[in-house]
Amino acid sequence: MSEHAVHPVPQWWAENALIGADEYAVKYRASIADPDDFWRGEAQRVTWMKRFNSVKNTSFDAEDFRIRWFEDGTLNLAANCLDRHLPAKANDTAILWEPDDPARPGRTLTYGELHEQVCQFANALRADGVKKGDRVTIYLPMVPEAAVAMLACARIGAVHSIVFAGFSPDALAGRISDCESDIVLTADEGLRGGKAVPLKANVDAALEKVGVRRVVMLRHTGKDVPIVEGRDVDWADYAAGQPAECEPEEMNAEDPLFILYTSGSTGKPKGVLHTTGGYAVWVSMTHEYTFDYRAGEVYWCAADIGWVTGHSYVVYGPLMNGAITLMFEGVPNYPDFSRFWQVVDKYDVATFYAAPTALRALMREGDEWVKKTSRKSLRLLGSVGEPINPEAWDWYYNVVGDARCPIVDTWWQTETGGHMITPLPGAHALKPGSASFPMFGVQPALVDPADGHILDGANEGALVILDSWPGQMRTVYGDHNRFIQTYFSQYPGKYFTGDGCRRDADGYYWITGRIDDVINVSGHRMGTAEVESALVDHDAVAEAAVVGMPHDIKGQGIYAYVTTMEDVEPTEALRKELVQWVRKEIGPIATPDVIQFAPALPKTRSGKIMRRILRKIAENDTGNLGDTSTLADPSVVEDLLANRPHVA
Ligand code: PRX
């Protein structure tokens, strides 16, 4: 790691940023010393229907576990994102939408127009019987209607569960049934990189496994798709004739806002549940401070709304702050590798926020694609979702940002609701690859993975958070026990992030990656258990073990060891079939990069698969496999080594 490459805070930033170095220090100390006082202040960013008295009522101790913020206050998040910006901002842009195909026209929605569309759609949902607390599944592409759908749910107190439009029908069905949702909002098709994504067909396939009462379908590409009478209705018809005003539901701060499924180290994806008041304060505060957001600037977070980054930093954070948020339907390499930077120029984007995987893919294509665009509007760059390697950081900084724009490398998780560890552009000198310092109110610590004791000073260990913050998830939907087990049992009294981390002598935090059985593929979380379970669902597969492997573009790739059924020949054709199978079962993001057929997997005498060894082989770090003496059959490892497929 290039610890020596330190970029001091540029003078403009030191002088003009919302948060400078001194202010960061003072505010951070205050946020820890007197959280009630600090958060009472920050909570003023919300227009409350009923003021809260209680600020923080939290404990991570098992006997007394509770996470409640602003618990006697009430608010409506959609009203906070829209109504209170009216009438002053009614004609100001809320959402800029850039389609997949640059030849097609984009769209602009003002705060007034967005308010009207949200109200109409909220009224339509209410008229259809959707009530406060009901779960609404959203399976939409990156179109403004996705934001309309989210805000309409928030307006009437329905809990949205967005399923990334790249997930398969099976994955969609699992999520619909887990949260017992009886309505799905979708589109005929999505468009990405010139290719159609058959969303309605996927919904129909999912609904063969789990029934719902209603499907509302946006006509996006105009594709002729089958319609189920009585169940399916056109988006336009659904909202037609609904009044343009809709009374917002009064929500308690701790009422659920949304569920978002994410992968863990075991079992099926968990429904991460976020509530209303704390989340609103958290995303508004972090969006403003991390991005130093200024009114009138165009802000672009390139994440899909199917991930938490899209929830917090395409929709809720920016709209809470009355920002102009750009929504991009397309991909970085279509029609060519200049696409991101052309969009930056087209809309004079000031802040650009994306995942390192996209940057690495573009970096590979050479600087010309970037250099032929201007990018002079850019003032700040952001990174999210995975560690950014110093090479990609340098490229982002020097080539994309012309050595002019600070980079905020934001570490956080679906569970944390918003940024937890990040440099602030006016406060911190940057070290490429380091997420740097904690956000206000966040108390990170490193613990010894073996015994859980807290490690001081420059050190490396498991990353935990010692106390609650307002944007924290509140439970796993329908399984509170799993919530406690997953996050608070390993190191009792502390929130365990699942990440490893190093702290250097200057106090900078460096995330080293997951230390549980979760891998990070192109900035997306994937449970190895999920891929294994998809593989063993195939008739030819007896057993499977999945680990991460280093991948130049994706960060981590998926390496699967597969033992076939006794009578099944492991052929090249089967390998291809299994790759397709996993894509179909979960979605293209779960595509295995390598499948190695193995007559047997390395197991301890008690039958536990030794993943450490499998990881080393996948990483091609086979010089030192460590202690293999506890293996039931050490020859298994020799076979794995001898038959390791050539990995490009
Ligand atoms: O391993 C960390 C990695 O992504 C995980 C969280 O994934 P997810 O819940 O899908 O949320 C992604 C978007 C916030 C973390 O446990 N991660 C996220 N951001 C960073 C990161 N790793 C290193 N540096 C980051 N900036």
From TrEMBL:
**Residues where ATP binds:** 385-387, 409-414, 499, 514, 525
InterPro entries listed in its UniProt record:
Ac_CoA_lig, ACAS_N, AMP-bd_C, AMP-bd_C_sf, AMP-binding_CS, AMP-dep_synth/lig_dom, ANL_N_sf
N6-acetyllysine: residues bearing it? 608
The AMP-binding enzyme C-terminal domain covers which part of the protein? 530-608
Q: Which molecular-function annotations from GO does this UniProt entry contain? A: acetate-CoA ligase activity; AMP binding; ATP binding; metal ion binding
Its biological purpose is as follows: Catalyzes the conversion of acetate into acetyl-CoA (AcCoA), an essential intermediate at the junction of anabolic and catabolic pathways. AcsA undergoes a two-step reaction. In the first half reaction, AcsA combines acetate with ATP to form acetyl-adenylate (AcAMP) intermediate. In the second half reaction, it can then transfer the acetyl group from AcAMP to the sulfhydryl group of CoA, forming the product AcCoA.
PANTHER family, alphabetized: ACETYL-COENZYME A SYNTHETASE, ACETYL-COENZYME A SYNTHETASE 1
Q: What is this protein called?
A: Acetyl-coenzyme A synthetase
Gene behind the chain: acs
